[in-house]
Structure formats: C-alpha cells, structure tokens
Amino acid sequence: xxxxxxxxxxxxxxxxxxxxxxxxxxxxxxxxxxxxxxxxxxxxxxxxxxxxxxxxxxxxxxxxxxxxxxxxxxxxxxxxxxxxxxxxxxxxxxxxxxxxxxxxxxxxxxxxxxxxxxxxxxxxxxxxxxxxxxxxxxxxxxxxxxxxxxxxxxxxxxxxxxxxxxxxxxxxxxxxxxxxxxxxxxxxxxxxxxxxxxxxxxxxxxxxxxxxxxxxxxxxxxxxxxxxxxxxxxxxxxxxxxxxxxxxxxxxxxxxxxxxxxxxxxxxxxxxxxxxxxxxxxx
Amino acid sequence: xxxxxxxxxxxxxxxxxxxxxxxxxxxxxxxxxxxxxxxxxxxxxxxxxxxxxxxxxxxxxxxxxxxxxxxxxxxxxxxxxxxxxxxxxxxxxxxxxxxxxxxxxxxxxxxxxxxxxxxxxxxxxxxxxxxxxxxxxxxxxxxxxxxxxxxxxxxxxxxxxxxxxxxxxxxxxxxxxxxxxxxxxxxxxxxxxxxxxxxxxxxxxxxxxxxxxxxxxxxxxxxxxxxxxxxxxxxxxxxxxxxxxxxxxxxxxxxxxxxxxxxxxxxxxxxxxxxxxxxxxxxxxxxxxxxxxxxxxxxxxxxxxxxxxxxxxxxxxxxx
Lengths: 283, 320
What we know:
The structure holds two protein chains of two kinds. Chain A is mainly α. Chain A is built from 14 helices and no strands. Chain A is about 70% helix and about 0% strand. Chain B has helices spanning about 20-25, 30-60, 75-85, 85-120, 125-130, 140-150, 155-165, 180-205, 210-220, 225-235, 235-250, 255-260, 275-285, 290-320; strands spanning about 60, 70. In chain B, helix 4 packs across helix 13 (about 275-285), helix 6 crosses helix 8 and helix 11 runs antiparallel to helix 14. Chain B is globular and about 70 Å long.
C-alpha cells in the first residue's frame, strides 16, 4: 500500500504510528525499570516517602544478602527451578517426540483410537485438573518431592500432537531410503529424523522450559516444605507475607527472570516459532 | 503406509524369536508402535485419566481429608456447589474478568501487531519490547504491580504521580467501591500476555498476500476500509483461536489473583475466580475433596460449553 499512497496523510499516519509505538514502548518498559531500580536500591530508600527516579546509591549487596538469607532458601529454590525446568524440557522432548513419531509413521490398527484418546485430553483445561492430580500425587506420597513436581508434567498432549503434525509433514522419501538401508524404526528415527528436527524441537523445548520455569499453581500445591519450593513459590511466599526487605525481594525477582531474559535475547527465534506452533495448534 | 511391509527381505527368523530379535524385524509394527507411543500413553493414563476418573468418583462422596471415602452422598456435592453463593460468585468473577480481558487483549494485541508489522525502522526492537514481558512469571509481575506501581503507600508509582498532581492517594487493592483492583488485575495480564498474541497476529498478517492490499488501494479503499474488508476477514482463523485461548486462559486465572490480592495468608472475600475458590475449598484448611472434585467437574463442563458456543458463534459469523 505504501507504493500507491505517498501523500501527506500517509506521512501523518506514519508519524502517528511511531508516536503510538514509542508511548507503548515506554509503558511496557516501566515495569522492568521499576524492577531494576528497586533491586539496586537500599531498602530504606525504597520505603522512604520521597520518590527517587534513580537509586540514590547502588546496593549490590542486595544480591549477596538474598542468597545469604536463611529464611528465603533462595539458592535452593533456584536449583529446584533449574532442575525441574531442565528435566521437564528434556523429558517432554523425548516422550512426546517418540510418541509423535510413532503416531505419525508406524502403521498400527488402533493408531487412530490412541490418537483420539490423547487429543481428548486437550479439551480439558489443565488447571482444572489440579484437584484430582493433587489427590493422586498425594496418595503416591509425592508431596513436597521433586518427583511430584516433575513427573506429572512430563506428559503433554499438546507437545505430542504438535510433534505428530510435524512428523507427518516430514518428507517420507528420506525415511523410506533409510528403511531400505536396513535402519529399522528406531535407527531411522534416531539417525535421520532427529537430526533434521532440531529446529522444531528447539521451538517446543524453549516453550516447555518457559512454562515450567514460570509455573505457579502446581508447585504451590505440591511444594509444601520450603526445601521443595521453586523460585516462584519462594518469591510468592514473601510477596504475600509482606516481607520486610523489599529491595532484596526485588533483587530476587530480578534473579528469577534473568535466565529467561537471557533465553529471550539469544533464542528469540525459537521462542517465536514455539509460540506460533503452540498458540494455534491446528493451523 | 503399506510401503514398509512390501520389503520383507531383512525380516529376521520367524520361529521362537526373543524380544530383541522381534524388535530387529521391521515387520513387528505393533511392538514398535508401543515402544514409541507406550511411555507417553502410560503417563497420560496414570496422570490424567486416573485422576479425572478418581475425581469423578470422589465427587459423589463426602471426602474430608481423605481420598478413600466411604460415605456415598449422591449428587449432594453438586447441589451444594451450585447452591453455594461463593461458588456462583466465582463464576460471576470469571465473567466480569473475561468481559474486560478478552476484548482488551484482543484489540491491543491486534493493534500492536498491525503497527509493528507495518514498521520498517526498528521493527525487531519494537517486537521484542512487546514480546519480552512474556518471559516474566505472574509472580514477578504481581510483585512489581502490587509493591511498586499500585502500592497504596508512598512506594507506589501511581500514588506518587497522584500526589504530584495534588490528589489523594488511592488504596488500589483494598477498596471495592469503585473496584480499582480490576485495573491492577487486568493491566498485569495485558502486560504479560500481549506479546504472545501479538506474535500470533503478526504470523497471521504475514500470511495475507500483499497483492490484496494493492488491489484494494487501486480500488480506492481507505486505510480503515482495507482493515475492515481485507485484514479482519482474512485474520478470522487467527482471531478465533486467539479469542478461545483468551477465554480458556481467563477461566484458569489464578496466579495474579493469588499473588496480588492475598496478604499474610488471607484472601479477601471479593474477586475470587473459580480456581482460587477451588484452591481454598480443596486444599485450604478444609481439604474437602468431595466438593472440590464436584467443583472441578462443573468447571470442566462450563469451559467445554464455552468452547462449543464460541466455536458456533465464530462459525455463524463466517457464513455472513
């Protein structure tokens, strides 16, 4: 349209668009600015009645105090979150990748029935099942354990569905050639299909990692002891308990989002691909 | 899919084969199917189907603090839930919340997508600015919103701004008349989610062929007419998916309500969406799994109904 219309109204439109984008940008960055400002402030400056746009003095010891605070268990919480997010991501990729390939490529009489059994669970909103899942996990004795936090999240019907759709679009000729070379199902999958699916796996993997790192309801329900808190639960406990040292709490929040901000900086391409895939599943 | 079976040359010996030998033979498709799909299906049955069926069972029993109840109560839990004013008020809270968040997020993410998509200079920068909040958790965003933007005390940015303009500070979270807390709850979710839906809309916009806009421009269509008669109809599949996701996500809202509104372990009596209500019924001091399960079943039916109705409405609109 830009080709046709180069009139003055077009230029006014462009200027308005940039103005709107810049205002929106400022609004969207304010929370990040506040997070950084509060994390680097002295707690007394944070709670003083005078507003400071910039911290009057920088207090990096908020970071060391954060990890030293015996009530927060922050190092433990960071480790729990890392361990849970990494194992869930790897687990989902392996379990759903295999299942998606089997459903897409291995002929089986009841394949469709199995597929419908899986996709039916997509209709049930995951969060609504937290009561029944809690009942199951508590009877397994998995409350406040990493097992209880990780294992129920390994079986993602959406990931399996997306892998199946992806493998269906994979060029079949290559796999058939591998088959003729005597590779078998697993050999074909491992040596031919997997190396050619890394981009797709990265998209699903980054989205799974973000979801797992930011998960709140399930860790809240399962992580009863402070030892099993994820970083989200540790922060939440102090937000809702009106902690005394807010500057330190904001430093904790900054540390908690740092891994994902780094991911967004370096892996944004895969995250965007993951959003596009998972957002509109049947597209 | 019969191609594989047409090449039996490498099939192993057929008599008295061990599992290993059977797996080497490519004919054993049934076995291979379960090697690939089995782990997922086993987990799905154990962690999704068993809990749901168990919960269905529990919903017909009186089950306080126990998951192996003995007292059958029939439909009493269901009737009790539907009669409970706080359960009905939680559904009302969802409706109010959805009435704000669904149209607002839809319009703002579509608007941002169109603006970012048209921008040539610094497009990647603007896209990242709106997308990066999706990296934040609800807990972190709630902390910033509750303690730093909408705080009732002098640490709150908005109250500082009001003070600078000579107005009195507002207790954003604790007054119910007017219900300012909705502004807090809705704005935090928009900030967190907008980028996600913007990406979906940008992907949709990029699938629209530029020749359609050129043709519309040649026919003298204004910018608004291009939006109304080209962009909007061709984005319908994306819009349908986005609206459904927005409704389902609004229905499952928990994190920001819990983190922003509860203080010292106490949640105020207002603004309890369904999952917050369910959380306090089933996992609070009562541990009432019977009523909690009945509530979960009712909520699942409600969301299924919403999805079906929304699908119908969007399809009806398409036939116009």
